């Protein structure tokens, strides 16, 4: 069954402090596909073609984004009613470590986020395969607190819609660029 692809428009708020709270981070937010990770308690974590990025200080991410003018979106998740940020941070690290790296047919950068939201928030994400499916679902259950960005035109920005083929092409391109270095 082919899903009808609709645009999900984010509503942006004033800047939030990425050192406090839980954020989904959309890096290269205008690319197809974008890269996604999480910032929890001031630490950035993601799964990439190169492997696991764990406990990268968010200031490093912000500095890199500023120097290279990388369009980046921060989606703040409402505080968990039971679990502390430290617990959520450790839990997400465990989710990232379940995968060696992003690889076609094995895992995408969304894979650890799906595990996290399934395990911590008891969401059913079997039919969620893309960020543009995850964010509306999180919004519909009231988990998105706010959204902010840097190096992005918030007025015209729409979350990119992409296919699995485009994800695989993106993986191949990053892997090629990585090997050429």
Outline:
The chain has one domain (22-180). The protein is 34% helix and 21% strand.
Oligomer: single chain
Structural class: alpha+beta
- Taken from the alpha-carbon principal axes, the silhouette is globular
Instruction: Output the radius of gyration.
Output: 15 Å
H and E order: EEEEHEHHHEH
Spatial strand order of the main sheet: 4-3-2-1-5-6
- Uncertain spans, ≥5 residues at pLDDT below 50? 1-5
Describe this structure in words.
- This protein is of the alpha+beta class.
- It has one domain (22-180).
- 34% of the residues lie in helices and 21% in strands.
- The chain has helices at 58-68, 85-96, 111-121, 131-140, 164-180, and strands at 22-27, 35-40, 43-48, 51-57, 72-77, 144-150.
- The protein has a 6-stranded antiparallel β-sheet with strand order 4-3-2-1-5-6, sandwiched between helices.
- The chain is globular, with a radius of gyration of 15 Å.
- The model is unreliable at 1-5 (pLDDT under 50).
Give structural attributes.
single chain, 181 residues, alpha+beta, 6-stranded antiparallel sheet, 34% helix, 21% strand, globular, disordered N terminus
Question: How is the secondary structure organized here?
Answer:
Blueprint: E1 22-27, E2 35-40, E3 43-48, E4 51-57, H1 58-68, E5 72-77, H2 85-96, H3 111-121, H4 131-140, E6 144-150, H5 164-180
Antiparallel strand pairs: 1-2, 1-5, 2-3, 3-4, 5-6
């Amino acid at each position: 069954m082919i899903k009808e692809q609709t645009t999900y428009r984010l509503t942006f708020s004033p800047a939030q402090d990425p050192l406090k709270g839980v954020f989904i981070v959309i890096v290269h937010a205008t690319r197809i596909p974008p890269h996604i990770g999480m910032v929890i308690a001031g630490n950035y974590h993601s799964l990439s073609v190169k492997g696991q990025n764990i406990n990268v200080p968010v200031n490093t991410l912000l500095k890199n984004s500023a120097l290279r003018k990388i369009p980046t979106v921060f989606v703040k998740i409402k505080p968990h009613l039971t679990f502390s940020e430290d617990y959520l941070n450790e839990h997400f690290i465990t989710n990232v470590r379940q995968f060696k790296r992003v690889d076609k047919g094995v895992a995408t950068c969304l894979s650890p986020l799906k595990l996290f939201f399934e395990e911590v928030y008891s969401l059913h994400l079997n039919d969620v395969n893309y960020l543009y499916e995850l964010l509306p679902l999180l919004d519909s259950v009231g988990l998105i607190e706010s959204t902010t960005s840097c190096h992005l035109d918030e007025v015209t920005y729409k979350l990119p819609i992409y296919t699995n083929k485009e994800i695989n092409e993106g993986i191949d391109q990053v892997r090629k660029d990585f090997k050429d270095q």
